Amino acid sequence: MSPDEYCQQKAAQSGSSFYYSFLFLPKPRRLAITALYAFCREVDDAVDETSDATVAQNKLIWWRSEVNAMLAGKPTHPVMRALEPHMATYQLQGKHLLAIIDGMEMDLTQTRYLDFIGLQKYCWHVASVVGILSASIFGVTNPKTLEFAEKLGLAFQLTNIIRDVGDDARKGRIYLPINELQQFGVTAADILNARHTEQFTALMQFQYERAQQCYAQAFALLPAEDRRAQRTSLIMAAIYRTVLEEVKEDGFKVLHHRISLTPIRKLWLAWITYVRG
Protein backbone atom coordinates (compact mmCIF):
# COMPACT_ATOMS: atom_id res chain seq x y z
CA MET A 1 0.00 0.00 0.00
CA SER A 2 1.38 3.37 -1.04
CA PRO A 3 1.45 6.35 1.36
CA ASP A 4 -1.37 8.00 -0.61
CA GLU A 5 -3.48 4.83 -0.47
CA TYR A 6 -2.90 4.62 3.28
CA CYS A 7 -4.18 8.19 3.73
CA GLN A 8 -7.15 7.56 1.46
CA GLN A 9 -8.11 4.51 3.51
CA LYS A 10 -7.71 6.44 6.75
CA ALA A 11 -9.96 9.22 5.48
CA ALA A 12 -12.62 6.92 4.05
CA GLN A 13 -12.82 4.79 7.19
CA SER A 14 -13.54 7.83 9.36
CA GLY A 15 -16.85 8.59 7.64
CA SER A 16 -16.14 12.24 8.38
CA SER A 17 -17.94 15.14 6.73
CA PHE A 18 -14.54 16.32 5.54
CA TYR A 19 -14.10 13.25 3.34
CA TYR A 20 -17.14 14.09 1.23
CA SER A 21 -15.94 17.62 0.60
CA PHE A 22 -12.62 16.35 -0.81
CA LEU A 23 -14.26 14.41 -3.64
CA PHE A 24 -14.62 17.44 -5.92
CA LEU A 25 -11.01 18.62 -5.75
CA PRO A 26 -8.44 18.18 -8.53
CA LYS A 27 -6.25 15.16 -7.82
CA PRO A 28 -3.08 16.97 -6.59
CA ARG A 29 -5.05 19.05 -4.08
CA ARG A 30 -7.16 16.05 -3.11
CA LEU A 31 -4.04 14.03 -2.32
CA ALA A 32 -2.64 16.90 -0.25
CA ILE A 33 -5.79 17.50 1.82
CA THR A 34 -6.31 13.77 2.32
CA ALA A 35 -2.77 13.47 3.68
CA LEU A 36 -3.37 16.43 6.00
CA TYR A 37 -6.66 14.94 7.19
CA ALA A 38 -4.99 11.57 7.79
CA PHE A 39 -2.35 13.32 9.90
CA CYS A 40 -5.09 14.95 12.01
CA ARG A 41 -6.81 11.60 12.45
CA GLU A 42 -3.58 9.89 13.50
CA VAL A 43 -2.70 12.42 16.20
CA ASP A 44 -6.31 12.60 17.39
CA ASP A 45 -6.48 8.81 17.65
CA ALA A 46 -3.23 8.82 19.61
CA VAL A 47 -5.18 10.55 22.39
CA ASP A 48 -8.77 9.37 22.00
CA GLU A 49 -8.01 5.70 21.43
CA THR A 50 -5.42 5.40 24.20
CA SER A 51 -6.66 4.94 27.76
CA ASP A 52 -3.26 5.47 29.39
CA ALA A 53 -2.35 9.16 29.38
CA THR A 54 1.38 8.42 29.59
CA VAL A 55 1.21 6.19 26.52
CA ALA A 56 -0.78 8.87 24.68
CA GLN A 57 1.79 11.51 25.66
CA ASN A 58 4.60 9.32 24.33
CA LYS A 59 2.73 8.85 21.06
CA LEU A 60 2.42 12.61 20.64
CA ILE A 61 6.13 13.01 21.37
CA TRP A 62 6.79 10.50 18.59
CA TRP A 63 4.53 12.40 16.20
CA ARG A 64 6.39 15.62 16.95
CA SER A 65 9.65 13.89 16.08
CA GLU A 66 8.07 12.57 12.89
CA VAL A 67 6.96 16.06 11.83
CA ASN A 68 10.49 17.31 12.41
CA ALA A 69 11.87 14.33 10.48
CA MET A 70 9.59 15.18 7.56
CA LEU A 71 10.72 18.80 7.63
CA ALA A 72 14.29 17.49 7.43
CA GLY A 73 13.34 15.31 4.44
CA LYS A 74 13.39 12.02 6.34
CA PRO A 75 9.77 10.96 7.10
CA THR A 76 9.09 7.35 7.99
CA HIS A 77 5.33 7.14 8.61
CA PRO A 78 3.16 6.75 5.47
CA VAL A 79 1.12 9.85 6.37
CA MET A 80 4.19 12.04 6.60
CA ARG A 81 5.62 10.53 3.43
CA ALA A 82 2.36 11.39 1.67
CA LEU A 83 2.27 14.91 3.08
CA GLU A 84 5.93 15.84 2.47
CA PRO A 85 5.70 16.58 -1.29
CA HIS A 86 2.87 19.05 -0.70
CA MET A 87 4.51 21.16 2.00
CA ALA A 88 6.42 23.41 -0.40
CA THR A 89 3.81 23.28 -3.18
CA TYR A 90 1.08 24.75 -0.99
CA GLN A 91 3.36 26.68 1.38
CA LEU A 92 2.35 24.62 4.41
CA GLN A 93 4.22 25.37 7.63
CA GLY A 94 5.57 22.75 9.98
CA LYS A 95 4.79 24.98 12.97
CA HIS A 96 1.09 24.55 12.18
CA LEU A 97 1.37 20.76 12.21
CA LEU A 98 3.11 20.98 15.59
CA ALA A 99 0.37 23.34 16.83
CA ILE A 100 -2.23 20.67 16.03
CA ILE A 101 -0.29 18.19 18.17
CA ASP A 102 -0.19 20.80 20.96
CA GLY A 103 -3.98 20.93 20.78
CA MET A 104 -4.28 17.17 21.10
CA GLU A 105 -1.98 17.32 24.10
CA MET A 106 -4.34 19.79 25.76
CA ASP A 107 -6.92 17.00 25.90
CA LEU A 108 -4.51 15.03 28.10
CA THR A 109 -4.03 17.84 30.60
CA GLN A 110 -7.26 19.85 30.58
CA THR A 111 -10.88 18.70 30.77
CA ARG A 112 -12.51 22.05 31.67
CA TYR A 113 -12.29 25.61 30.36
CA LEU A 114 -12.98 28.57 32.61
CA ASP A 115 -14.21 30.92 29.89
CA PHE A 116 -14.59 31.29 26.14
CA ILE A 117 -11.18 32.90 25.78
CA GLY A 118 -9.58 29.72 27.10
CA LEU A 119 -11.78 27.57 24.88
CA GLN A 120 -10.86 29.66 21.84
CA LYS A 121 -7.19 28.86 22.41
CA TYR A 122 -7.99 25.15 22.34
CA CYS A 123 -10.15 25.58 19.22
CA TRP A 124 -7.34 27.46 17.47
CA HIS A 125 -4.97 24.53 17.95
CA VAL A 126 -7.33 21.71 16.99
CA ALA A 127 -9.43 23.44 14.31
CA SER A 128 -8.45 26.94 13.20
CA VAL A 129 -4.91 25.84 12.33
CA VAL A 130 -6.37 22.98 10.31
CA GLY A 131 -8.53 25.53 8.53
CA ILE A 132 -5.50 27.65 7.64
CA LEU A 133 -3.60 24.63 6.28
CA SER A 134 -6.64 23.43 4.35
CA ALA A 135 -7.31 26.81 2.78
CA SER A 136 -3.69 26.97 1.65
CA ILE A 137 -4.16 23.66 -0.14
CA PHE A 138 -7.44 24.72 -1.77
CA GLY A 139 -5.92 27.94 -3.08
CA VAL A 140 -5.32 31.42 -1.67
CA THR A 141 -4.62 34.66 -3.53
CA ASN A 142 -5.86 37.10 -0.86
CA PRO A 143 -4.54 36.95 2.75
CA LYS A 144 -8.10 37.60 3.96
CA THR A 145 -8.90 34.05 2.92
CA LEU A 146 -6.70 32.71 5.71
CA GLU A 147 -8.69 34.83 8.19
CA PHE A 148 -11.85 33.27 6.74
CA ALA A 149 -10.37 29.80 7.20
CA GLU A 150 -9.31 30.51 10.77
CA LYS A 151 -12.78 31.76 11.75
CA LEU A 152 -14.48 28.90 9.91
CA GLY A 153 -12.33 26.41 11.81
CA LEU A 154 -13.59 27.92 15.05
CA ALA A 155 -17.18 27.58 13.83
CA PHE A 156 -16.58 23.92 12.97
CA GLN A 157 -15.12 23.17 16.39
CA LEU A 158 -17.96 24.93 18.19
CA THR A 159 -20.35 22.78 16.16
CA ASN A 160 -18.43 19.67 17.22
CA ILE A 161 -18.55 20.74 20.86
CA ILE A 162 -22.32 21.31 20.73
CA ARG A 163 -22.99 18.00 18.96
CA ASP A 164 -20.66 15.97 21.19
CA VAL A 165 -21.54 17.24 24.68
CA GLY A 166 -22.80 13.81 25.75
CA ASP A 167 -19.97 11.83 24.18
CA ASP A 168 -17.37 14.15 25.70
CA ALA A 169 -19.04 13.96 29.12
CA ARG A 170 -18.76 10.17 29.04
CA LYS A 171 -15.02 10.70 28.62
CA GLY A 172 -15.00 13.08 31.60
CA ARG A 173 -14.60 16.18 29.42
CA ILE A 174 -16.73 19.32 29.38
CA TYR A 175 -15.77 21.88 26.76
CA LEU A 176 -18.58 24.32 27.54
CA PRO A 177 -17.00 27.22 29.50
CA ILE A 178 -17.50 27.02 33.27
CA ASN A 179 -18.59 30.66 33.58
CA GLU A 180 -21.30 30.07 30.98
CA LEU A 181 -22.58 26.99 32.82
CA GLN A 182 -22.83 29.19 35.90
CA GLN A 183 -24.55 31.94 33.93
CA PHE A 184 -27.33 29.55 32.87
CA GLY A 185 -27.57 27.62 36.14
CA VAL A 186 -26.17 24.36 34.77
CA THR A 187 -23.77 22.30 36.88
CA ALA A 188 -21.01 19.99 35.71
CA ALA A 189 -22.90 17.19 37.47
CA ASP A 190 -25.94 17.93 35.28
CA ILE A 191 -23.86 17.30 32.18
CA LEU A 192 -21.89 14.35 33.50
CA ASN A 193 -25.14 12.69 34.63
CA ALA A 194 -27.00 13.58 31.42
CA ARG A 195 -29.68 15.70 33.10
CA HIS A 196 -31.46 17.58 30.31
CA THR A 197 -33.10 20.61 31.90
CA GLU A 198 -34.62 23.86 30.68
CA GLN A 199 -31.48 25.59 31.85
CA PHE A 200 -29.37 23.23 29.75
CA THR A 201 -31.51 23.94 26.68
CA ALA A 202 -31.03 27.69 27.20
CA LEU A 203 -27.28 27.17 27.55
CA MET A 204 -27.16 25.21 24.30
CA GLN A 205 -29.24 27.81 22.48
CA PHE A 206 -26.59 30.35 23.52
CA GLN A 207 -23.83 28.07 22.16
CA TYR A 208 -25.80 27.57 18.94
CA GLU A 209 -26.20 31.30 18.36
CA ARG A 210 -22.48 31.92 18.90
CA ALA A 211 -21.57 29.18 16.44
CA GLN A 212 -23.93 30.64 13.84
CA GLN A 213 -22.37 34.05 14.41
CA CYS A 214 -18.93 32.54 13.74
CA TYR A 215 -20.15 31.09 10.44
CA ALA A 216 -21.55 34.49 9.42
CA GLN A 217 -18.30 36.23 10.38
CA ALA A 218 -16.27 33.67 8.43
CA PHE A 219 -18.33 34.03 5.25
CA ALA A 220 -18.04 37.82 5.47
CA LEU A 221 -14.24 37.46 5.42
CA LEU A 222 -14.04 35.32 2.27
CA PRO A 223 -12.85 37.47 -0.66
CA ALA A 224 -14.81 37.06 -3.90
CA GLU A 225 -11.67 36.19 -5.86
CA ASP A 226 -11.00 33.12 -3.70
CA ARG A 227 -14.58 31.90 -3.37
CA ARG A 228 -14.29 29.41 -6.22
CA ALA A 229 -11.02 27.98 -4.90
CA GLN A 230 -12.55 27.64 -1.43
CA ARG A 231 -15.61 25.70 -2.57
CA THR A 232 -14.39 22.71 -0.57
CA SER A 233 -14.44 24.86 2.58
CA LEU A 234 -17.97 25.95 1.70
CA ILE A 235 -19.01 22.32 1.23
CA MET A 236 -17.70 21.50 4.70
CA ALA A 237 -19.54 24.52 6.07
CA ALA A 238 -22.82 23.39 4.45
CA ILE A 239 -22.51 19.96 6.05
CA TYR A 240 -21.51 21.27 9.47
CA ARG A 241 -24.24 23.92 9.55
CA THR A 242 -26.79 21.28 8.63
CA VAL A 243 -25.62 19.19 11.59
CA LEU A 244 -25.92 22.26 13.81
CA GLU A 245 -29.48 22.87 12.62
CA GLU A 246 -30.38 19.21 13.17
CA VAL A 247 -29.13 19.45 16.77
CA LYS A 248 -31.29 22.53 17.32
CA GLU A 249 -34.36 20.92 15.71
CA ASP A 250 -33.86 17.91 17.98
CA GLY A 251 -34.12 20.19 21.01
CA PHE A 252 -30.42 19.96 21.90
CA LYS A 253 -30.82 16.39 23.23
CA VAL A 254 -27.08 15.93 22.86
CA LEU A 255 -26.60 14.46 26.32
CA HIS A 256 -28.25 11.22 25.27
CA HIS A 257 -27.38 10.75 21.61
CA ARG A 258 -25.20 12.12 18.83
CA ILE A 259 -26.73 13.64 15.72
CA SER A 260 -25.14 12.61 12.42
CA LEU A 261 -26.03 12.86 8.75
CA THR A 262 -26.26 9.87 6.43
CA PRO A 263 -23.51 9.49 3.80
CA ILE A 264 -26.01 10.13 0.99
CA ARG A 265 -27.15 13.37 2.62
CA LYS A 266 -23.56 14.53 3.04
CA LEU A 267 -22.90 13.71 -0.61
CA TRP A 268 -26.02 15.62 -1.68
CA LEU A 269 -25.00 18.68 0.35
CA ALA A 270 -21.51 18.47 -1.13
CA TRP A 271 -22.84 18.27 -4.66
CA ILE A 272 -25.40 21.04 -4.37
CA THR A 273 -22.86 23.37 -2.75
CA TYR A 274 -20.30 22.60 -5.43
CA VAL A 275 -22.80 23.27 -8.21
CA ARG A 276 -23.88 26.56 -6.68
CA GLY A 277 -20.25 27.60 -6.34
Automatic annotation (TrEMBL):
It is an enzyme of class 2 (transferase). InterPro entries: Isoprenoid_synthase_dom_sf, SQ_synth_HpnD-like, Squ/phyt_synthse, Squalene/phytoene_synthase_CS, Trans_IPPS_bact-type, Trans_IPPS_HH. The keyword Lyase does not apply. Keywords: Transferase. GO terms for biological process: carotenoid biosynthetic process. NCBIfam families: HpnD (TIGR03465). This is Presqualene diphosphate synthase HpnD. It comes from Sapientia aquatica. The gene is hpnD.
